[in-house]
Amino acid sequence: MKNLRGIIVLIVLLLFTVCAGALYADSEMHWSYSGEYGPQNWHKLPGSQANGKKQSPINIPSDAPINENGIKFFYMDSLLNIENNGHTIKVSYERGSYILVEGKKYNLLQFHFHAPSEHTFSGEHFPMETHFVHQSDDGEYAVIGLFLKKGEYNSAYASIWEHFPEEGEKKETDTVINAKTLLPERKSYYRYDGSFTTPPCTEGVKWFVLKDSVELSDDQISQFEKFYKSNNRPIQPFNRRGFYLGGEEQKKDSFLPVFVIIGIVIIAIGIMFFFMQGKKSEKR
Ligand SMILES: [Zn+2]
Questions:
Q1: Cross-referenced Pfam families, in alphabetical order (predicted)?
Q2: Residue 249 in contact with residue 242, Cβ under 8 Å?
């Protein structure tokens, strides 16, 4: 009899653990761009690095150093495989396309869109931003950010826009795309170390934000905005990071504040001497 009671207690405990585990796993998945599960609470999610010091997106100041022609693109054709996952519209790319940058190869995994842009330039948002997500064979991530602005109708983007799925849906199509056609002609970029802009906001992501933007028509932008109008994480502090130029991190001169402090001390000592001299002459 005692044994039976023990077994029942054990079963109840087990069930409780399983249920709690399921709830925990569910909370891990659930996040949004506003309200209780919004960006200000992303750091509470399991495994989140959202409170880290090297987060994305950031503002790019107009005087940030520009890298010219540093990325070699090897983007092949791919069948359009598109998904509306409740956070963005994402295109998964067939294996075999990659970039070479800073002496390393990164395979193109997918690209997706944000509206408005996540990064800002000189404090200004663009209507949209495309993220091309790459991963090296040793697991490192490199993301190319591309600003999309209002302008001419863009036929390269149209072949994707035609296939937007409803929320929670996936489509495998016969349409052939090439991610190369989505890029601007010149590929100069701003380079910094950041994170994923969605939970768990993992750091160690190399960011390449292209200087030149690409145009979409008013209609094309509002077509995307019908699905996602504010799927952008707020701008994160830059902290003690530097932009990279030719693979070298350009940290802001941290000696400047020291010089300012030394300067103030010298001036203060000078003023003190001045008054002391004055008092001495009064005594005479
Ligand atoms: Zn993104």
A1: Carb_anhydrase (PF00194)
A2: yes
User: What distance in Å separates the CA atoms of residue 46 and residue 200, rounded to the nearest whole number?
Assistant: 8
- The predicted-structure confidence for 229-267, as pLDDT tens digits, reads as follows 999 999 999 999 999 999 999 987 655 566 666 676 777
User: How many domains, in total, are found in the chain?
Assistant: 1
54 CA distance to ligand 1 middle (Å)? 16
- What pLDDT score was predicted for residue 277? 75
Residue 176 maps to a domain: yes
CATH code, domain carrying 232? 3.10.200.10
What are the tens digits of pLDDT across the range 110-147? Answer: 999 999 999 999 999 999 999 999 999 999 999 999 99
Q: Is residue 257 part of a domain?
A: no
Supply φ then ψ for residue 10, to 5 degrees: -60, -45
In a domain, 242, yes or no: yes
CB atoms within 10 A of CB 230: 10
Among the listed residues 30, 43, 87, 112, the single catalytic one is 87
Between β-strands 78-84 and 72-74, what pairing exists: parallel, antiparallel or unpaired? unpaired
DSSP string, 78-91: EEEEEEE-SS-EEE
State the pLDDT at residue 13: 45
Rounded to whole angstroms, how far apart are CA atoms 247 and 251? 13
Q: How many CB atoms lie within 10 A of CB 32?
A: 14
> 62-85, pLDDT tens digit by residue?
999 999 989 999 999 999 999 999
Residue 152 lies in a domain: yes
Q: For the whole model, what pTM was predicted?
A: 0.82
Q: How far is the CA of 114 from the centre of ligand 1 (A)?
A: 6
Catalytic residue flag (residue 87): yes
> How far, in Å, CA of 246 to CA of 142, rounded?
16
